[in-house]
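Changelog-adjacent note: as of this version, every example in the card shows the full chain rather than a window. The one below runs 200 residues end to end.
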Amino acid sequence: MGNKSRSSLLYPSHVTTAFKEESNRRLLRLPSPTRGACQLTQKLYELGARKIVVFDVAAPGCLPAMTNRIAFSSVCEERVNQLVNEYNRLLPQLVEDLKCRLPGTVSILGRVSNSFQNIYQNPSKFGFKYTNIPCCVVDDHGTTPCVPNKTPCQDRNQHIFYDAIHTSEAANAIIANQCFSQSSVCSPINIQQLAAVQGR
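Full-length structure tokens:
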């Protein structure tokens, strides 16, 4: 990406070098859950990326592979969900630090976890009938990938999950549309607004 693709800053132009150095020092103190995200965004920046969206992690304990493991139900395994809670908690500060650590970037946070949880807890509101039953045929009480050469469900739009670990196209479309045009998922601006930001 060239200079024309670089977006303008979201932080004030008078940010000092000292403040940037403090941001870098804070990065070194970040707990390990977010270091992978830090390294990835740094690499993308070095390759020319200036508009960055960082997504949190939706509840893995609500996947059919988890909920159907012990009992065939839609009750999420909260012990599994807790594994990503710390990462999601630290992510907003990481996104904020990007503005100072990577000059010229516009970074936004995508809270897909909130959107997914809203869909999972209120399936009928979004047109879904099945929460823990995948669209495709799976073995072992609905915890495995799709069984080859088996016909999937007739109406995929009624299922939150396509298989035991992947959300369906219908669920993904809802989350993507919310992040693209609304501020409830992606903030401080949505992806449509991010795309319109002009580089300097």
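Structural remarks: The CA atoms of residues 135 and 153 lie 5 Å apart.
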